[in-house]
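Researcher: We plan to redesign the surface later, but first we want a full-length starting point. Tokens attached.
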């Protein structure tokens, strides 16, 4: 039992250490930003081409489905017509059968006498008698022939009916397969559409970073973080080191924590959602730093937009100097913003007020932290995701608190 307890303790310590240590960021240069712009541009062109191909295939499938639906409706109507004709033919057979019986009854039983015999044997000559016998036989044979023809026609119609019913089943199965194929292509297109804004945003961000670091005076092969540090030291505008961290709102509670899906290697939720009884409570930086970016999120870069979300979240990103490396904290869904880009802030500088802008179901603050930022922060979006940090590795976040 002691060994098991020790093992569990070591595992927990290891996991905690993993969250405490920001992931290592590979050095990036202006040349790498140029390569990224070219790479993402090619990816975007390929996605647009695939989307056009998918749309063409979907339209062709829609045309086939419409044709099948028309064929099914035509077959259905023909089956209904055949069913009605079979009913009418059966009625005709019944009528002819009744007529045949009536003829025989009439000739055999007329006025209480055997009229058929009287009629036949009342002939004056053999020829006349044969003629009279044949008249009755022809009448009954005629009805019998009509009934046989009707019965054969019914068999043919029943066979056609079965054939049409089988065709309906075949068409229905084909329609089902086509709809499944259409759904798969549309899902692929939806996935492409969702990723395209991200690709477009990454192209834009990479171009902005490229221009930013060129204007800053970084060399083509110089590590941009080292360049940025060099420039900031020379200009006297370097960010002071973080002494300690604080919670971003004075009192509140957690509505959702950070979570990672290891099976799909993707984030379910990249930060903490925090709320308060005061739905417009002031929001502060978790530590001193400089305002790196102030912006309103675009719906085109947010997959929630397809669910009717407006995507216009007000966001502030603060850059901190932590243990000689930069980390970035993002404050999302703000109602209002009180700072500007480039402004130095302390942990007591109000960034804005908590709100519900963008993809939000109610007033709250989404706090997200990474050891790099994908817009002028030394990494691309995928690297940003790989460097997400757990806020609880920097400061405690109980389920509820009443001080920072």
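Model: Full-length starting sequence:
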């Amino acid at each position: 039992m002691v060994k098991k307890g020790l093992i569990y303790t070591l595992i927990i310590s290891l996991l905690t250490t993993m969250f405490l240590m920001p992931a290592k960021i590979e050095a990036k240069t202006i040349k790498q930003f140029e390569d990224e712009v070219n790479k993402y541009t090619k990816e975007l062109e390929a996605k647009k081409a695939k989307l056009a191909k998918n749309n063409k295939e979907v339209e062709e499938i829609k045309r086939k489905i419409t044709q099948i639906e028309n064929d099914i409706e035509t077959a259905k109507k023909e089956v209904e017509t055949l069913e009605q004709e079979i009913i009418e033919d059966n009625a005709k057979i019944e009528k002819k059968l009744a007529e045949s019986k009536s003829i025989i009854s009439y000739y055999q039983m007329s006025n209480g006498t055997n009229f058929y015999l009287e009629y036949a044997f009342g002939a004056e000559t053999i020829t006349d008698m044969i003629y009279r016998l044949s008249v009755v036989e022809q009448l009954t044979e005629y009805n019998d022939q009509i009934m046989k023809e009707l019965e054969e026609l019914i068999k043919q119609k029943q066979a056609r009916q079965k054939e049409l019913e089988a065709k309906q089943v075949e068409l229905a199965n084909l329609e089902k397969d086509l709809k499944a194929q259409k759904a798969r292509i549309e899902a692929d297109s939806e996935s492409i559409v969702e990723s395209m804004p991200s690709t477009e945003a990454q192209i834009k961000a990479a171009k902005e970073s490229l221009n930013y670091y060129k204007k800053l005076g970084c060399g083509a092969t110089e590590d941009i973080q080292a360049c940025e540090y060099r420039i900031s030291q020379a200009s006297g505008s370097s960010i002071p080191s973080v002494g300690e961290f604080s919670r971003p709102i004075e009192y509140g509670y957690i509505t959702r924590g950070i979570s990672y899906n290891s099976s799909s290697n993707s984030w379910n939720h990249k930060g903490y959602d925090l709320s308060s009884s005061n739905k417009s409570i002031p929001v502060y930086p978790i530590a001193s730093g400089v305002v790196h970016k102030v912006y309103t999120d675009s719906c085109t870069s947010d997959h929630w937009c397809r669910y009717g979300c407006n995507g216009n979240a007000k966001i502030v990103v603060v850059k901190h100097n932590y243990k000689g490396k930069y980390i970035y904290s993002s404050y999302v869904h703000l109602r209002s913003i009180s700072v500007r880009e480039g402004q130095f802030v302390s942990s007591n500088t109000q960034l804005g007020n908590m709100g519900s802008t963008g993809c939000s179901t109610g007033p709250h603050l989404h706090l997200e932290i990474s050891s790099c930022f994908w817009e002028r922060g030394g990494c691309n979006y995928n690297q940003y995701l790989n460097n997400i940090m757990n806020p609880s590795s920097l400061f405690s976040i109980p389920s509820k608190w009443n001080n920072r």
